[in-house]
Amino acid sequence: MREKIIKTLLMKISMLGLCIIFGLGFASNTLAETLLNQPPAYTSGYTSDSAGDQFVADNFVLGSEKTINQIILWGGYYSGNSLPAADNFTVIFHQNNSGVPGTILYERTGINHTERTNTGNTVYNTIIYQFTLNLPSPPTLPAGTYWVQIFGNTLNSDDTFLWVNGILDPVNGIPQCAVRHPGEDWYKENNERAVQLNFISESSMGACCKNGNCSMMTEAACMDTGGTWQGVGTNCDSNPCKQPPPTAIPTLSEWGMIIFSLLLAGSAIWMIRRRQVS
Length: 278
Description:
There is one protein chain. By secondary structure, this protein is of the alpha+beta class. It folds into two domains: 32-200, Jelly Rolls (Sandwich), CATH 2.60.120; 203-245, no CATH class. It contains three helices and 19 strands. The strands form four sheets. Strands 1, 2, 5, 8, 9, 12, 15 and 16 form an eight-stranded antiparallel sheet that branches. The longest helix has 28 residues, at 2-29.
């Protein structure tokens, strides 16, 4: 009887230990929170570019204070598909003003992708990519209704950025998007933008090296881009990425120089004799 009680206690203790281990494991992996999730529908799109004549924003709601440090959006370069080596996005968060974008709360420009993947889909003959953007000095917004405006800056290209339509997030999404032309007011359109707003815990971020360039991202995102992840908590402040070796300049060896000199000397002698003969 006594042995049976001891075995039962040991089994319960073991089960409790496993629960704690698995619980800690799952807790440590809860490193991301999606605050708005509107996947692409691939049926239409709006250009949103400083080089064009149109800007687009979409609205969403936060139930509590949140930090947004990553944006995933879907779009392409209309209509020539001239994909730049580096993207140049501007991201703006607005307060809501009677159903349209109002006061600017956050604005950053010159944002390049940390990941860019061809989705295999096209809209208006434009190849659609999934862009991942990490926001510098990310905003922390209290509970409320907001607008996110995203546009490209393709000033040296004939193309403009096309932001494709998305499927409404039933929880945090708000129907309709907003469009504005330079010098005019915002107006509403009956569709959504394909966009995802995320909070990625800093404990899951690290420096990712690729071709001598450094970007902050998760290990999975770094592996997807073919980069080398430097580990949790590393950063790009001192650029830990090894720079690619300089292109080697072809040079002649000692024997090569001797042979080259003999060839030059032989050519000179031949030219002199030819002139003497003539």
